[in-house]
Amino acid sequence: MKIAIIGGGAAGVIAAITAKRLNRKIDIDIFDINKGIGKKILASGNGRCNISNTSITQDNYIGENPSFINQALKEFDFKAFENFCKSIGLILDIKSSCKVYPLSNEAKSVVNLLENELINLGINQILETKIVDIKKNNEKFILQSLNKEFNNYDKVLISSGLQAAPQLNSTEDGISIATNFKHSFNPTYPSLVGLHTNFEFKSKLQGVKKESTVSLYIDKQKEKEITGDVLFTKYGVSGFAILDISQYAVYALSLYQDVAISINFFPNLTKNELLGTLENLFKTLKHSDAYIALSGIVSRKLALVLLELNNIDKELKAKDINAKQIRAIVNSLTNLRFKIEDTQGFKHAEASGGGVRTDEIDNKTYESKLCKNLYFAGEVLDIVGNRGGYNLHFAWASGYLAGKSLVKL
């Protein structure tokens, strides 16, 4: 049997290793556009590689049908992943947050050990090769690169990802190939990404960072609330809370819905507690400029914007701020709301949403329901995970199930 795997990322590599371990007699060619496998693995976790998570359910995933992932999570849970890592010599560092990293704290060690196992198993790596088309003739698959044809494959796995991080040569070729075999797909969109806002003072707040609670409103209805770092930028907002909520925001944007967020800079205080704190500050620093008094609880940049936003003269003394103005400032600090207009795009996204529709894929084997012996795994499918190792775990799990299926006659 001769198998082709398109894409040398997490899903493709674990599929190749799993299949070859089950049947040493099969021939496997793994194709990748880059000079080496695992480019996205190397970039994950800022080079540290947030490789998995010990607490995973379908609630950590978004897509047309998130329950599609349940079989993969059942068969390849964290314990199974840990055992796989041990089998290639990779020891894990499990954090109290449930995030999992290599004990070496380097993504490079993950890729090196995966590559070592491919070599040990005799899996053929065909690198710097972009597969642009696949045809099926007399039950055999024919792969076409930009300048060469590869013939006589019995089975093919598409694990080439989507467009997130195009600087790593990411493409949507997997979707194009899927459509050749009558597959449909949901529109792709950048996920885990900074958001562009219509907030008129965004440039004045550039660099301001504060742990806050971010609420997401879709068509004016509150849909999600996440607490974490918010970083103001020249284009809008970023930070961990924004990346996390972006998954739901961008999906709604892709459906042309009205999307807005609200920021509460003091989620641990009630409005009355915050009001009392401000009143005390203004009394204590009554002869100081109002923005100086405000800088006792927020950054100077934010203090100045709060005054401008509420039409309060920045040179006004703290003692001259009236009760109505203090309440207006409190409202801004607990419900600073603005529309989301766009994202930072695929180049700055950690993952892609959308992709090949999962109702056309068998969730136990990851084989196409439309074309026998054609398989899909990883990001090319319409499943995207939260930040925290969930996307990589789906890649490992779906690749493992596909790998098991590839060797079955």
Automatic annotation (TrEMBL):
Stretches assigned to the RsdA/BaiN/AoA(So)-like Rossmann fold-like domain: 2-404
Keywords: FAD, Flavoprotein
Matches recorded under Pfam families: HI0933_like, HI0933_like_1st
Lineage: superkingdom: Bacteria
Cofactor requirements of the protein: FAD
Every RsdA/BaiN/AoA(So)-like insert domain range: 189-350
Record-linked InterPro entries: BaiN-like, BaiN-like_dom_sf, FAD/NAD-bd_sf, RsdA/BaiN/AoA(So)-like_dom, RsdA/BaiN/AoA(So)_Rossmann
Record keyword Transmembrane present: no
Protein name: Aminoacetone oxidase family FAD-binding enzyme
